[in-house]
């Protein structure tokens, strides 16, 4: 926090004096002040930009909302702390607007000014890493022929991200994610190749590779007296395939594994675009004994309708609700309602995107029991996941 540049935007002279004096005496860094939006924009230009603006909303002349809009376009402001006595619902909406403008929202200071609270919020600021200008074209662009070659050579590898019990940390399952072990470019995430696969109808081949690896891993874990549910993502194009259920059934029979060890995740947006035959495909997977999860629950507009139409056994709550826990208290009410809804429908609920211990504790207090995110583990290759499973077993057997 030393050396941080802070702009105080406050139209009340006494409150502005209190805030500026307190921060300067605390030696926070370089402090600037403005009585309205026009003065604030001028201060940004004269200073060459600031790290954080502590911003009131109501004032004469250019108000705080208009200032934030112009400041976001100027590129001279990085983060915002609100300082307002607005209704909490309006402040939450303002926080969402700040994020939509591409600015970082550090929190709500409220009124009157509190130095302790201000220092705590300023500590959240993280100076952006310097980076080189982005090239006009992506480096090493990937071609369809390169992807087909990679599929033929078995370069696409299944990675596994654990789902864990929030209370005990016990492993509850894992999501299977694709990585490309490219011979020249190293490990590539799906963002580098998935859209090309979708456009060239190669998703089915990728799924086959991941399913084969996942089933083989399940067989290995079974031999080690471990049982782990694996979740595979289904693309909308696969839901029209009559061969999908047959492929899954044959794979399970080949390795003598139960169908309840597999779960398939489908996004709500995918279901909206899915053909009518998709319901039959999902029904057949459920009749086979596999689980079915609605992924990114709450991110679309018809989640409840889809829950009524399709035979889901699990809900995966979209990570956006977890990210907004600090800035939107309403997110807590939505999460609590999702817990109640899942219980009423007899579905399991998995919360995605958990990254901090504070989030995990709050989710647990809201009734959530199972979560997935970087706090617990990042996606890992099969050999590391086997070690993870065995380590979990050892921890559970150790006496307290």
List keywords for this structure.
five-stranded parallel sheet, cyclic-guanylate-specific phosphodiesterase activity, EAL domain-containing response regulator, 21% strand, 400 residues, single chain, EAL_dom, eight-stranded mixed barrel
Verbal overview:
With 400 residues, the chain is α/β, with parallel strands linked by helices. It has 16 helices and 15 strands. The strands form two sheets. An eight-stranded mixed beta barrel has the order 6-7-9-10-11-12-13-14, surrounded by four helices. Strands 2-1-3-4-5 form a five-stranded parallel beta sheet, sandwiched between helices. Strand 1 (4-9), helix 1 (13-25) and strand 2 (29-34) form a beta-alpha-beta unit. Helix 8 packs parallel to helix 9. The radius of gyration is 25 Å and the shape is elongated. Residues 131-138 have low confidence and may be disordered. Residues 5-126 form the Response regulatory domain. Keywords: Phosphoprotein. It comes from Pseudomonas donghuensis. This is EAL domain-containing response regulator. It holds the Pfam family Response_reg.
| Side-by-side strand order of the widest sheet | 6-7-9-10-11-12-13-14
Q: Give the beta-strand count.
A: 15
Global structural class: alpha/beta
Low-pLDDT ranges: 131-138
Q: What's the mean pLDDT score?
A: 87
**Rg to the nearest angstrom?**
25 Å
Main β sheet profile = 8 strands, mixed, barrel
Q: Beta-strand percentage?
A: 15-25%
Shape: elongated
N/C terminus separation = 41 Å
Q: Note the quaternary state here.
A: single chain
Number of helical segments with 4 or more residues? 16
Helix content: 40-55%
């Amino acid at each position: 926090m030393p050396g941080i540049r802070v702009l105080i935007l406050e139209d009340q002279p006494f409150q502005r004096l209190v805030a500026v004096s307190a921060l300067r005496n605390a030696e926070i860094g370089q402090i600037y002040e403005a009585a309205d939006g026009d003065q604030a924009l001028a201060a940004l230009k004269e200073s060459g930009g600031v790290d954080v603006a502590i911003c009131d909303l109501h004032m004469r002349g250019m108000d705080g909302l208009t200032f934030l809009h112009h400041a976001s376009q100027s590129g001279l402001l990085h983060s915002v702390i609100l300082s307002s006595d607005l209704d909490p619902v309006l402040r939450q909406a303002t926080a969402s607007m700040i994020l939509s403008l591409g600015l970082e929202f550090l929190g709500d200071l409220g009124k009157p000014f509190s130095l302790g609270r201000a220092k705590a919020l300023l500590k959240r600021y993280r100076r952006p890493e310097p980076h080189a200008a982005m090239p006009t074209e992506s480096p090493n662009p990937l071609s369809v022929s390169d992807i087909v070659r990679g599929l033929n050579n078995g370069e696409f590898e299944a990675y596994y991200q654990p789902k864990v019990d929030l209370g005990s940390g016990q492993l509850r399952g894992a999501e299977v994610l694709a990585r490309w072990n490219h011979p020249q470019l190293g490990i590539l995430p799906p963002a580098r190749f998935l859209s090309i696969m979708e456009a060239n109808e190669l998703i089915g081949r990728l799924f086959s590779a991941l399913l084969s690896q996942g089933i083989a891993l399940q067989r290995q874990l079974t031999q080690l007296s471990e049982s782990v549910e694996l979740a595979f993502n289904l693309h909308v194009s696969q839901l029209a395939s009559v061969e999908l259920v047959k492929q899954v059934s044959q794979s399970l029979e080949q390795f003598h594994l139960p169908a309840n060890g597999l779960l398939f995740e489908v996004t709500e947006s995918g279901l909206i675009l899915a053909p009518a035959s998709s319901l039959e495909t999902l029904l057949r997977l459920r009749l086979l004994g596999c689980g079915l999860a609605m992924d990114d629950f709450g991110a679309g507009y018809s989640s409840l309708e889809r829950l009524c139409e399709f035979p889901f056994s699990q809900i995966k709550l979209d990570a956006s609700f977890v990210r907004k826990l600090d800035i939107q208290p309403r997110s807590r009410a939505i999460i609590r309602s999702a817990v109640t809804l899942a219980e009423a429908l007899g579905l399991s609920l998995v919360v995605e995107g958990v990254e901090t211990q504070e989030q995990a504790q709050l989710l647990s207090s809201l009734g959530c029991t199972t979560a997935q995110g970087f706090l617990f583990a990042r996606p890992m290759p099969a050999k590391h996941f086997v070690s993870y499973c065995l380590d979990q077993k050892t921890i559970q057997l150790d006496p307290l």
